[in-house]
UniProtKB/TrEMBL annotation:
Compartment annotation: Cytoplasm
Organism: Acinetobacter larvae
A Gene Ontology BP annotation from the UniProt entry: glyceraldehyde-3-phosphate biosynthetic process
Pathway: Carbohydrate degradation; glycolysis; D-glyceraldehyde 3-phosphate from glycerone phosphate: step 1/1; Carbohydrate biosynthesis; gluconeogenesis; Carbohydrate metabolism; erythritol degradation
PANTHER family in the cross-refs: TRIOSEPHOSPHATE ISOMERASE
Protein name (record): Triosephosphate isomerase
Length: 263
């Protein structure tokens, strides 16, 4: 199966943004864009990842959007179930509230919040076992790329979760390749470099799972309306994980359109 048969995903990671009123405005504007020119869900899966506090409100506000827009959690606890874990939200609690997808392993969590490979693997295991879909983020630093270690680092991050993912659970995983040096910097990986890494990821996945050819591999790192088409044209880039540009309704809509129409 060619990877071009994969329905693309365009996911807005709002990170620790925006204030409530701005979030409402953003959703309204995005819904208007979708109303004027709907994208079919068969062309593109669209999702947004607001702060935990806003997950359910955003979900309600998007319920009447012209096309389905999924709401994704930005993180999940390493603890499963319920219990005395102050401040935590488990995979089961997300699922129980109707949140079906979670980002795990974002570089900001790995770098700033001690999400080591062990922690990330626990989160992935718990999320999958609770029936969530996982958007698993991988990516190398600038120093690692300059030392020629990018492929090794990224493939190791895939291997880190391989021991906790059961054979059929790979169907519930979306990979997001986000080179750290491209996040929030305005420096996008060139389409050639991004495609080369995505192909390497798919090859690596093929050694681990029979689902490799069907797995969406998203690119993230300064994706904007004006570079989305070039990225979408790459064979193994099956969508985008968008930070800054997802806080602008028109930009986010244009990025989704670029992937929906190119794939
Ligand atoms: P930017 O699009 O702002 O570079 O952020 C990318 C990202 O980290 C998405 O998860």
């Amino acid at each position: 199966m060619s990877s071009s048969a994969i329905t693309p995903w365009v996911v807005g990671n709002w990170k620790m943004n925006p204030m409530q009123a701005d979030a409402q405005q953003l959703i309204q504007s995005f819904k208007q864009q979708l109303q004027q020119a709907p994208l079919s869900a068969a062309q593109c899966h669209i999702a947004v990842a607001p702060i935990a506090l806003h997950l359910l409100t955003v979900q309600q506000q998007l319920a009447d959007a012209a096309v389905p827009v999924a709401v994704v959690a930005q993180d999940v606890s390493r603890q499963a179930g319920t219990g005395a874990y102050t401040g935590e939200i488990s995979a089961e609690l997300l699922k129980d509230s109707g949140i079906d997808t979670v980002l795990i392993g974002h570089s900001e969590r790995r770098e700033l919040f001690a999400d080591t490979s062990v922690v990330v693997a626990e989160k992935v295991k718990n999320a999958l076992n609770a029936g969530l879909r996982v958007i698993y983020c991988v990516g190398e630093s600038l120093a690692q790329r300059e030392e020629g270690l990018a492929n090794q680092v990224v493939l190791q991050q895939i291997c880190d979760i391989a021991r906790v993912v059961q054979a059929e659970q790979w169907a519930q995983i979306v990979i997001a390749y986000e080179p750290i040096w491209a996040i929030g910097t305005g420096k996008t990986a060139s389409p050639e470099d991004a495609q080369a890494m995505h192909a390497a990821i798919r090859e690596g996945l093929a050694q681990i799972t029979a689902y490799a050819a069907k797995m969406p591999i998203l690119y993230g790192g300064s994706v904007k309306a004006d570079n989305a088409l070039q990225l979408a044209a790459c064979k193994d880039i099956n969508g985008a994980l968008v930070g800054g540009a997802s806080l602008d309704a028109q930009s986010f809509y244009q990025i989704a359109t670029a992937f929906a129409q190119t794939k």
